[in-house]
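Dear colleague,

As promised, here are the two records you asked about, laid out in our usual form so they can be pasted straight into your sheet.

NAME FIELD: protein one
SEQUENCE, THEN STRUCTURE:
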Amino acid sequence: MSETNFWRITLDTNPDTCNLNCIMCEDHSPYSDSPKIRKQQRRLRPNMDRDMLERVIRDAANMGIKEIIPSTMGEPLLYPHFDVFLDLCHELNLSLNLTTNGTFPSPDKHQNVEYWANRVVPIGSDVKISWNGAKEHTQSKIMLGAKLSKHIENAKRFIAVRDELAEQHYCSMTMQLTFLRSNLEEIPDMLDLAIELGFDRIKGHHLWTHFDEIASENLRNDIIFADRWNQIVKYCKERVTRHNETASRPFKLDNFSELYLNNLDDIAPNGSCPFLGKEIWIDPTGRFNVCCAPDQERKTLGDFGSVSNNSLSELAKSKKYSQLMNSYKENSLCKQCTMRR
C-alpha cells in the first residue's frame, strides 16, 4: 500500500476551544482531566497561527488536494481566523468539509446561522452537524450544553439557506452521531428527523472509549446490545430503501454496518484504513499526523515530522510514512481502530 493519492487534509486549528462538553470527546468531556491539567500547567494547545494556516492550505492546494476540513477536535466556528480559512478555500477553489457541533457560535454578534450558511454553502462539499438524540434529555445528557430544540431550529435555518443556493452549488448535509447505548433506541427516530429536516445522510461511528466512566456506553462489549444494534441497522436500511423509492434526492447511511457477534473486538476483520495515503492531519503546532485516532494513541504510531521544518509534500513522501502504509495492519492500534472499512 505504498501508493498515495492525497485528496483531503484536516487542520486541527483550535482543538482546545469548544462551547460544549460531549461525554465522548477526548478533550472536552466532563470526564477528561487533560484540559484542566494543561490549563493549570499553562500548556494548553495554541490556536494555529494565521501564517501557518495560509502556508499549509496553499501547500495542500499545490499538492492537488481538493478538500479541506477545519478543526474536528474543537468547534471550528470559534477559530479566530475562520473567515481567512473560508477566503482561502474560495481563492484556491478548495471544497470545505465542515463538522460543527450545531450551536453555530461566533465571536461577533452579527455572525449567526445565516451568516455562516452563506459563507460555507457556496464552497461546501458537506456540512456535518453533531447530533446524539431524538429526545431532549438524551441530546443534552450526551452533548452537555446543547439543546435539541435549538439544534432543530439551527439546522432548519442552515438547510433553508442551503436550499436557496442549491442551483448554484449543492452542499450536502449530514447528521453525525456516535453510536451509544444511550441513544441506540433513538437512532430510527433520528433517521426520521434527518429526512424530515432535509439532511442528505446520517453518518456515525462506534465509540472510542477514552474514559472508564463511558465504558458502559460501548455497544461492542455486550452481545445483547451488539445484536440490538444489528437489528436497528437492518431497520434503518429498510427505512431508507423505502424512502428512496419516491424521494427526489436519495438519502444515505454511512457506517451502518452490522457487527460480527462472534468477534466484537474487531469492527472490520481485515478491514482497510480509509486514511493512509489519502488524508493528512496537521495539529495546531504543525505536527504531521497520519489519522484521526485519539491523540495519545496516535503518537504511538511514530513521529512523522512537522510543517514547521518541512513542506507538506516532503512529509507526505517520507520513508517513515511509506513504511507505516505497508505495515499498519500489523499495528495493535490499527487493529482496534473503529474507522476501518
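NAME FIELD: protein two
SEQUENCE, THEN STRUCTURE:
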Amino acid sequence: MAKVYVVTAPERVRGIYASWPECQAAVKGVSGARYQAVASREQADAMLRGEGRELSAGLYGFVDGNHLGGVGVVLVERRDGDDPIVVDEVGMTVVQVFLTAGLPSLSSEHAIRNALAKLRNVLAELAALHLLLRMAPEGATLTVVHDYEGVAAWMEGRWRTKDPIVAEVVEGCRSLVRARRLNVSFHHQRGHQSSWAGRDDFAQFNAKADALATEAALDR
C-alpha cells in the first residue's frame, strides 16, 4: 500500500494527503499543525478517528542494531485496559552480546569485530534478536518488532542464510526459541518513523530501541 500523509490538527487542514507536496502546502505556516507520513490510508483514517496504533494485549520485544555495533532491546507488556509498560530495556554492543552467546564463530572479541566489519548492521540486528530471546521470560508468547526485514525473513526461512556467520546466529536464535519454549511471531515496523500526529506505540518503542543502540555504540 502506498504511503500517505495525515494531518490531525488544526481542523481547517485536517485530512489525508496523497503526497508530501500536497501535505506541505496545507500545513506550511499553519500554527499547531500536527502531521506525519503513515504506511496506508487505513492507518491515516484510524488516526483521524483518534485511534492511532496501539499495542494489543501481550508481550512485545522491540529490537534494533546499527552499523556502529550498537544494539537496543525494549521489552514491553500491555495488559487489557492498561497502557503499555516497559518491562526491561537494554543497550549493549555487539561484542558484549556475542561474548556470552556461546556461538563458536563468535567466541572472541577479535572474531566478533571481524564479523561486524563484514556484516555491519546485519550482525547488530541479529545480535538484538539473540539478546531479546535470552531476556524474554521462559515459555512466553512474544511478538518481535523489528525494522530490518531479515530478522523475520531468516527466522521464518523465507531468506536463505548464505553467509556462514549469519546462518550460525540464526540457528542460535532458533535454538533459543526451542530451548526456552518461546512462542514467537514477528511484526515489521518501518524504521525511523516518528509519531507526530497521534498515538503510535510501534513507532514510539521502535525509536526507543534505536536510541538505546545508538547510545551503546557511542559509549563503547
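A couple of things worth noting about protein two: The CA atoms of residues 70 and 84 lie 25 Å apart. The two ends are 40 Å apart (CA to CA).

Best,
R.
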